[in-house]
Amino acid sequence: MTAQTLDALLSENVSGRAVLVRSDLNVPLDGSTITDDGRVRASLPVIQKLAEAGAKVIVMAHLGRPKGEADPKYSLKPAVDRLRELSGLNVVLADDVTGESAQKLAAELADGDVLILENVRFDARETSKDAGERAALAEEMKALTGENGAYVDDAFGAVHRKHASVFDIAALLPSYQGDLVATEVQVLKKLTENTEHPFVVVLGGSKVSDKLAVIDNLIGKADKLLVGGGMAFTFLKAQGHAVGSSLLEEDQLQTVQGYLDRAATEGTEIVLPTDIVMASKFGADAESEVRASDDLEGGTFGASGLGLDIGPDTTAAFAQEITNAKTVFWNGPMGVFEIEAFAGGTRGVAQALADSAAFSVVGGGDSAAAVRALGFNESNFGHISTGGGASLEYLEGKELPGLTALEGN
């Protein structure tokens, strides 16, 4: 079954009708300051479409991982302030999820107004593994809409979670797929169905364990797997190279060796760094030098050196592979891009993607943040995902509860 679209909802008369929208406002914060507002901006179009059509818009979202109770550190207020600033809409924030404040403000909503419920994870039932507890919260969410309510899921970054605001609510109201979710699914299908080759996947980030399932699923499907970031050191160690004090997951060495063996027989080339930027310590004031991958401990820092970025030769080689590709998926930075001395690899990969004629997807999370932090124009990329974890699980071939719920409605 195919999910109903937002356009189908808008083709009805939604003026005066309360519409629950699950948005993704999970922005990174430095204190109360948003360091990357990409998710707020990505959430705006659906909220604006509904408000402009006269709907009473009630937005549900989470931020961070509070432990099922209110915590000012995880309040949605910074995201709401930014949403109000960007949209020009009348936007108010409830003090709670479905309690007295939410009920009062929902009842007072005028057509075209927007109410944001406080962080849904302030209610422990949102993430409960008990279906009855989640269903009870979903019923309270539904009650906020009065009669003739509707639900729109526009939070792709949360569709891999079986949570009340993502999964259970879809069974209680006429449900629709938001434009952001619809676009993400369409894009990811291009990476998994009738993919144009050469298909190159660039994987980085700190831990190989975070990417095990996607690597497992892409071997035999991708033509090249380019591995950078902290996860590269587990691969290099599996090949017999000493990696100094670089990030290493010893318990994954056997698994990684298995991937290297499988890839060799299934038509996927795993391309590892040939050089690394080694540092004396982790920090902006660290000394650094470039070392060949087969001699990382032979330089100034010896076995105490930390690998914090791929080297220039590797960056150039990865860029060439991207240039030759017809389809590229990138998830995870190549180094500690927040520190300029270790941003070269990530910048080089991003530049190659921006210049490429390939269909390119930046897989959310830190990769998307890096693109913006390094000053790239987002329009130069085929698609920048908002759903890091959800994107990876889709590529792993997993069923995503939020999508399943929409399709069954």
| Strand adjacency order, main sheet | 5-6-4-1-7-8
Please describe the biggest sheet, giving its number of strands, its sense, and whether it closes into a barrel: 6 strands, parallel
- The number of strands is 17
Oligomer: single chain
By DSSP (H or I, 4+ residues per run), the number of helices equals: 15
Helix percent band:
25-40%
Q: How far apart are the first and last residues' alpha carbons, in Å?
A: 9 Å
Per DSSP, what share of the residues sits in E-state strands of 2 or more residues? 15-25%
Keywords:
six-stranded parallel beta sheet, 17 strands, 409 residues, 15 helices, alpha/beta
Layout of helices and strands:
Layout: H1 6-10, E1 18-22, E2 29-30, E3 33-34, H2 38-52, E4 56-60, H3 77-87, E5 91-93, H4 100-108, E6 114-116, H5 131-143, E7 150-153, H6 164-168, E8 175-177, H7 179-192, E9 199-203, H8 212-218, E10 224-227, H9 232-238, H10 253-266, E11 269-271, E12 275-279, E13 288-292, E14 306-310, H11 312-324, E15 327-331, H12 344-355, E16 359-362, H13 365-373, E17 383-384, H14 388-395, H15 401-407
Parallel strand pairs: 1-4, 1-7, 4-6, 5-6, 7-8, 9-10, 9-15, 10-11, 15-16, 16-17
Antiparallel strand pairs: 2-3, 12-13, 12-14
